[in-house]
Design goal:
This protein is of the alpha/beta class. The chain has 16 helices and 14 strands. The chain is globular. Helices cover 39% and strands 12% of the residues. The protein has 2 domains: 195 residues, Aspartate Aminotransferase, domain 1 (Alpha-Beta Complex), CATH 3.90.1150; 252 residues, Type I PLP-dependent aspartate aminotransferase-like (Major domain) (Aspartate Aminotransferase, domain 2), CATH 3.40.640. The two termini are 39 Å apart. It comes from Miniphocaeibacter halophilus. It is an enzyme of class 4 (lyase). Keywords: Lyase.
Length: 459
C-alpha cells in the first residue's frame, strides 16, 4: 500500500475519552445478553465503535464554544437565525425547518408530500426513509443503476439513478402518481456510493419536465461533493462549496440529518423551496417536533450545527475524512477480504455473501458476521442485509436485498489510522477462519425497523 496517499489528521486532539478492553469471555457474556444484536451491546463494553457515524462525531473547539452561546428561547432563538442563514448560504435553499434528527424531517416530508397509493422512486431504500414513505401510503420503487447491487463492481458513481428506469416508471404510472423522487447523496446501503452531478442534472430535468419534485436525502452531501471533485470531469478545480451549491440547485429541498455531515451529536432539518409545502411543514412540525424555530433542537445544538456545516465543507477536512475510510478499505482489499467496491465516503462494507458463503441469506450471514467480529475483537459494527431490509408490508415475506453487508462506519474526527489498523487486523483474522461463523435466527422480531431491537440466537 502507498501510505503517502493518506494525509495525517488535519486537527489536534485536545481531549481524550478512555475506552475499555474486555476479554473474550466477557464479550461472549455481553453478546449473549444483547441477543447477538450489536445495537443492544452497552457502549462501555465496546473497544472500537463502528456501529454508526450518526451523532458519534467529535465536535471542534469552535463548535463547543458555540454551545456556550445557546439561546434557549422557546420561540425566535438567535441560534435558529444563524442556522437558517448558514443553510441558505451554503445550500441555496429558501426555507428550513429544524427537526430533532433526520427521521423527523423524513416524517414531515412524507406526511405532506405523499398521497396514499403514490409511488416514491429512489436510488436504493434506506430503512427509516422507506418506513415513513410506506407509513404514509407511498410505494417505494428502487431506480438505482443495476451495478449498485453488485458489491464487486468498481465504477465511479455507483449511486446514480438509472434514468431509463425512472422514465419508464413515469410513463407506466403517470406523473400525477409519482409523489416525488428521493435522491440520496451519497447512497448509504449501496456502500456510501456517490451520485454524479451529471445524474443530478438529468434527474432534475426529467422530473421537472413532468412536474415532479426532487428531494435529496442530503445526510452526507459534503462527502458526495468531494467525490464529484475527485472523479467528475470539469469539477477538479471547483471548491466544495461551489459543488454543493450546484448540487442543491437541482433539488426542490432536502431532508438532512445533522448527525453526519453536520458533525454534531443531534439535530437535523427539512429544507424546502416550495412555499405551500413550507407552510404545511410549519404546521406539522409543531405537532411532532416543536416550534418552527427550534423543531426539537436546543439553541446550543443549532449553533453547533451551523458551525459544523461550514467545517464539513473545508477541503482538508473532507479529503482526510474520505481517505481515512479508504485506507481501511484498501487494507482489507490487499488481504483478499471481500468488500463493497469502490470504498464509499463514510464506511467500509464487508460483503457477507462472499465472506460467509457457507451461510444462506435466511441464516442472516451479515448479522452473524457482525456478531462474530465483536466476539473476536470488541469492534462493533452493523448488519445491513436481510434483517435491515425487513418484511413486505403486504405479504409479510422478508425483503431479500442483493447486498448482504456488514457496515464498518467511521465516526468523524474520533479514530486514528492506528485504530483502522486494529480493525483491519481483526477482520483479516476473522476472514481466515470464516467457516467457523455460525448462522443466527430470530428469537424476538419487532414489527417495525426490526434491526434496532431484534434478538437472535444461534441456529
Amino acid at each position: 500500500m502507498d501510505y503517502s496517499k493518506y494525509p495525517a489528521e488535519p486537527f489536534k486532539i485536545k481531549m481524550v475519552e478512555p475506552v475499555a478492553v474486555v476479554d473474550r469471555e466477557e464479550r461472549e457474556r455481553v453478546a449473549k445478553e444483547a441477543g447477538y444484536n450489536t445495537f443492544l451491546i452497552p457502549s462501555k463494553d465496546v473497544y472500537i465503535d463502528l456501529l454508526t457515524d450518526s451523532g458519534t462525531n467529535a465536535m471542534s473547539d469552535r463548535q463547543w464554544a458555540g454551545m456556550m452561546l445557546g439561546d434557549e428561547a422557546y420561540a425566535g432563538s438567535r441560534n435558529f437565525e444563524h442556522l437558517e442563514e448558514t443553510v441558505k448560504e451554503l445550500l441555496g435553499v429558501k426555507h428550513i425547518i429544524p427537526t430533532h434528527q433526520g427521521r423527523g424531517a423524513e416524517n414531515i416530508l412524507s406526511s405532506i408530500a405523499i398521497k396514499p397509493g403514490q409511488y416514491v422512486p429512489g436510488n436504493m431504500y434506506f430503512t427509516t426513509t422507506r418506513y415513513h414513505q410506506e407509513h404514509n401510503g407511498g410505494i417505494f420503487v428502487d431506480v438505482i443503476r443495476d451495478e449498485a447491487h453488485d458489491a464487486a463492481i468498481d465504477i465511479p458513481f455507483k449511486g446514480d439513478i438509472d434514468i431509463s428506469k425512472l422514465e419508464k416508471l413515469i410513463d407506466e404510472k403517470g406523473a400525477e402518481n409519482i409523489a416525488y423522487v428521493c435522491l440520496a447523496v451519497t447512497v448509504n446501503l449501496a456502500g456510501g456510493q456517490p451520485v454524479s452531478m451529471k445524474n443530478m442534472r438529468e434527474v432534475s430535468e426529467l422530473c421537472h419536465k413532468h412536474g415532479i419534485k426532487v428531494f435529496f436525502d442530503a445526510t452526507r452531501f459534503a462527502e458526495n461533493a468531494y467525490f464529484i471533485k475527485e472523479r467528475e470531469e470539469g469539477y477538479e478545480n471547483k471548491t466544495i462549496k461551489e459543488i454543493v451549491h450546484e448540487m442543491f440547485s437541482y433539488s426542490d429541498g432536502a431532508t438532512m440529518s445533522g448527525k453526519k455531515d453536520g458533525i454534531v451529536n443531534i439535530g437535523g432539518f427539512l429544507a424546502l423551496n416550495d412555499e405551500e409545502l413550507f407552510m404545511d411543514a410549519k404546521e406539522l412540525v409543531v405537532v411532532y417536533e416543536g416550534m418552527p424555530s427550534y423543531g426539537g433542537m436546543a439553541g446550543r445544538d443549532m449553533e453547533a450545527l451551523a458551525i459544523g456545516l461550514r467545517e464539513s465543507m473545508q477541503y482538508e477536512y473532507i479529503r482526510y475524512r474520505v481517505l481515512q475510510v479508504r485506507y481501511l478499505g484498501e487494507r482489507l482489499k490487499e488481504a483478499g477480504v471481500p468488500i463493497v467496491e469502490p470504498v464509499g465516503g463514510h464506511a467500509v462494507f464487508l460483503d457477507a455473501r462472499r465472506f460467509c458463503p457457507h451461510l444462506s441469506q435466511e441464516q442472516f450471514p451479515a448479522q452473524a458476521l457482525a456478531n462474530e467480529l465483536f466476539l473476536e475483537s470488541g469492534v462493533r459494527s452493523m448488519e445491513r442485509g436481510i434483517v435491515s431490509a425487513g418484511r413486505d408490508i403486504k405479504t409479510g415475506e422478508n425483503h431479500k436485498p442483493k447486498l448482504e453487508t456488514v457496515r464498518l462506519t467511521i465516526p468523524r474526527r474520533v479514530y486514528t489510522y492506528k485504530h483502522m489498523d486494529v480493525v483491519a487486523d481483526a477482520v483479516i483474522k476473522l476472514y481466515n477462519h470464516k467457516e467457523d461463523i455460525r448462522g443466527l435466527k430470530f428469537v424476538y422480531e419487532p414489527k417495525q425497523l426490526r434491526f434496532f431491537t431484534a434478538r437472535f440466537d444461534y441456529i
